[in-house]
Structures are given as structure tokens and as C-alpha cells.
Design goal:
The longest helix is centred in the middle third of the chain and has 22 residues. The chain has two domains: 198 residues, Citrate Synthase, domain 1 (Orthogonal Bundle); 98 residues, Orthogonal Bundle (Cytochrome p450-Terp, domain 2). The protein has 16 helices and five strands. By secondary structure, it is mainly alpha-helical. A hairpin with a 2-residue loop joins strand 4 and strand 5. Helix content is 54%, strand content 4%. The termini are far apart. The strands form two sheets. It has a three-stranded antiparallel beta sheet. It has a two-stranded antiparallel sheet with strand order 1-2. Pfam families: Citrate_synt (PF00285).
């Protein structure tokens, strides 16, 4: 059955972008402070450090729910009962299959291909084969079910291994780890990855979600919108930073070297990876959850990560007072994903494995009450220049 999710928001989408002060033509880079749409999906409260999915605090969800429950919450508007959850899990399992054409495209990619590029290629190829018409929940389920398959298949191929068949009895998180390694994962690893998927599933009008909604607003298909979102997530200012946190910690090397390295980085204007967020003016609630998960999953690695965090915050307060920088979700994402055995270049694609749930939910919400997203730009170039014909122009 193909269905389009209803708009469960309480207010209609706005026709124009507005600011909190109700001005319609702000002059601020990056659209900061602009209200571009209404949504019932998630609320990011940057001042209080809160993240809410459809009314539920992220701390409660991260500690108690499965990723499949979060998908149901985002797509259908409420947490599932046992039968609803069983039905959704069955639909996800039934969709776990890679068409031969998609597998051929993955086999044709060079081993050095960035996994995000491989994921984008596989999703686009799959969409050309599978998707027609207006975005539906069935399409969202199929896309989300296949993200881990595409990524794991490419990862094995680039290491000279054959892709594996999904295990129907395994959860979304467990099946992904199995497809990567060929081993049924430990309960500890499954819990860690599942919580990560829950925490990253949605986050308001972030760059990739906004991109997906813009494409959907043109009445394009769901795969085109998701492929565009993948491109946005790939950027290091959005989802491409977790592996760079790992690189930074590796460069610091030891706890004893942390102060001198951090002081030099801060005084010379280097960016501390995993610190600061465009919205949060206090601790990122997702980082709080991931910190505790990393403490349990990798006690030795956690000591280094925690020490660098504490010293960085102290030095930032000393050297850059008033900046109010805190660790963000990417800082401890790196530690957690490393603890479950993922290589650094799989961190951002695994972010996509989670966020596709939010992307597709936002796409469905957009098309349920659609208006083309078409903001204005403030023109800063010259006007009224005299025109000169080509044969009269001189350097």
C-alpha cells in the first residue's frame, strides 16, 4: 500500500521566509534566524540545549527506543505499539534487497572512491529503477532499509570481499554491522549504534534537511531530494567532521601533549573539530548522550577524549572569553563509531544511514502541504551599466 503521510503540524507552512522579528527581507548571511517552514518533526532549542522529536525529549528516546521506533514516530506521527512496530520491521526487512544494476554500479567504482560518493551513486541508480510518482511512505521505507545495504556492499567490495545477504532476524542497526563485518555483532555494539541512529535521525532545519525540502517543494521525486541531501551532508561544515575529530585526537597524541597543542591551535585560529554549533549556545544534548555511551564502549579512548574536551573548554574560556563553545554531536560520535569498529571514512555515511529517516519524513511533510520554496536574494552588484557591443569592447 502506498500512502502519503499527512501533515501533522498545527500550522500551515509560511509563504515567505520570516525572521523572529517579523521582517521579511533580513540581511544576514547563512539565513541565520530565518523561519523557512513549519514542521512537527523536531524542535532544536539552542538556548536550553534541548532536542525534541514530535514532543519527546531526545534523552528519553536515546536511552529507551529502537531506531525502528523512531522511524515510526517520524513517518506516522506517534510511537508504535508492539503490533505497529512488528509491521514496520517486517516492511523494512522485506525491502532489504539490492537490484543487480545497483550492485553492478557499486562494483564499477574504484576502491578509493569516497564512501559518501558511493552511497550517492547507489541511491541515484536505485531511484532510477524503483521510484516513480509522488513521495510515499513506502518509498521512504525502501530507501531507509537500503542505505545500510548500499554502504556495506561498497565497503566490502573495496576491500576485496563479496557483499553479504541481510539477516532477516537482525534489527536495522545489527544488520548493518553484520553486513560490514560478516559477524553477528555483540549486544553492546548494537546498543551503541542503535542509540547513535536514534540521536542523529533528525535535527530541525539543518542544511541537508533544508536541501531535501527545497527539492521536494519543486514536486521532484523522493530520491532526487535525498541525493541532494547526501551532497549537503558530505560537506565538512555539516556532517563531514566526525572523522576529523579522530584525526585531531590522533595528532594531539597523548594527554600530556593536549594543553600545548590546544593552546597553540586556539591562539593561531585553528578550528577545534567537534566544538561549537550553529544553533546550540550550550551543551548539545546529543553530545551528552554520546559522551556516556563512549565512556562505556571505549574506556581507554574515552580518557583521552574527555581530557581534551575539558582542557579545550577551559582554554577557550581563558583565551576566547564569551565565545560559549561546547562539544557538539560530532565529538563523541567519532569515539562511539570507532568503538563499534567503523573506519573513519564510514562515519559520515553512517550519519546518512540515520538521517535518511528524518530526510524522508521532512520530504513527506513538505509534499503534504506544499509551496515552492523560493527565497529572495539581496543583490549587491552594479546597476545601469552602459552596454557595449562585442566589436567595440576593449580590455
Amino acid at each position: 500500500m502506498s500512502t502519503v503521510i499527512p501533515n501533522t503540524g498545527n500550522t500551515p507552512q509560511k509563504d515567505t521566509m520570516t525572521t523572529n522579528s517579523n521582517t521579511t527581507k533580513p540581511n544576514k548571511g547563512g539565513l541565520e534566524g530565518i523561519v523557512a517552514a513549519t514542521t512537527a518533526m523536531s524542535k532544536v532549542d539552542g538556548t536550553a540545549g534541548r532536542l525534541i522529536y514530535r514532543g519527546y525529549n531526545i534523552h528519553d528516546l536515546a536511552r529507551t527506543t529502537s531506531y525502528e521506533e523512531i522511524l515510526h514516530l517520524l513517518w506516522f506521527g506517534h510511537l508504535p505499539d508492539e503490533q505497529e512496530l512488528a509491521d514496520l520491521r517486517a516492511r523494512l526487512v522485506a525491502a532489504r534487497t539490492i537490484p543487480d544494476t545497483v550492485m553492478q554500479s557499486l562494483r564499477s567504482l574504484p576502491a578509493e572512491t569516497d564512501p559518501m560518493d558511493a552511497l550517492r551513486t547507489a541511491v541515484s541508480t536505485w531511484g532510477a529503477l524503483k521510484i516513480k510518482g509522488k513521495p510515499t511512505v513506502d518509498q521512504a521505507i525502501a530507501l531507509t532499509a537500503n542505505f545500510p545495504l548500499f554502504l556495506a556492499a561498497f565497503n566490502r567490495l573495496r576491500h576485496g570481499q563479496e557483499p553479504l545477504e541481510s539477516q532477516t532476524e537482525l534489527s536495522h542497526a545489527a544488520n548493518y554491522l553484520y553486513l560490514l563485518t560478516g559477524q553477528v555483532p555483540s549486544n553492546e555494539h548494537v546498543r551503541g549504534l542503535n542509540s547513535y541512529l536514534v540521536l542523529l535521525a533528525d535535527h530541525g532545519m539543518n542544511a541537508s534537511t533544508f536541501t531535501a525540502r527545497i527539492v521536494a517543494s519543486t514536486e521532484s521525486d523522493i530520491v532526487s531530494a535525498v541525493v541532494a541531501a547526501i551532497g549537503a551532508l558530505k560537506g565538512p561544515l555539516h556532517g563531514g567532521a566526525p572523522s576529523k575529530v579522530q584525526d585531531m585526537l590522533r595528532e594531539i597524541g597523548t594527554i600530556e601533549n593536549a594543553d600545548s597543542w590546544l593552546r597553540n591551535a586556539i591562539t593561531t585560529g585553528q578550528k577545534l573539530m567537534g566544538f561549537g554549533h550553529r544553533v546550540y549556545k550550550t551543551t548539545d544534548p546529543r553530545a551528552e548522550e554520546l559522551r556516556e555511551m563512549a565512556r562505556v564502549a571505549d574506556p581507554e579512548g574515552f580518557k583521552m577524549s574527555r581530557h581534551v574536551e575539558e582542557r579545550a573548554l577551559a582554554l577557550l574560556d581563558e583565551l576566547k572569553p564569551g565565545r560559549r563553545l561546547y562539544t557538539n554531536v560530532e565529538y563523541y560520535s567519532a569515539a562511539l563509531m570507532n568503538s563499534v569498529g567503523l573506519s573513519g571514512d564510514l562515519f559520515t555515511p553512517t550519519f546518512a544511514v540515520s538521517r535518511v529517516g528524518g530526510w524522508t519524513a521532512h520530504i513527506l511533510e513538505q509534499v503534504s502541504n506544499n509551496r515552492l520554496i523560493r527565497p529572495e536574494a539581496e543583490y549587491t552588484g552594479p546597476e545601469n551599466l552602459p552596454f557595449t557591443p562585442l566589436n567595440e569592447r576593449k580590455k
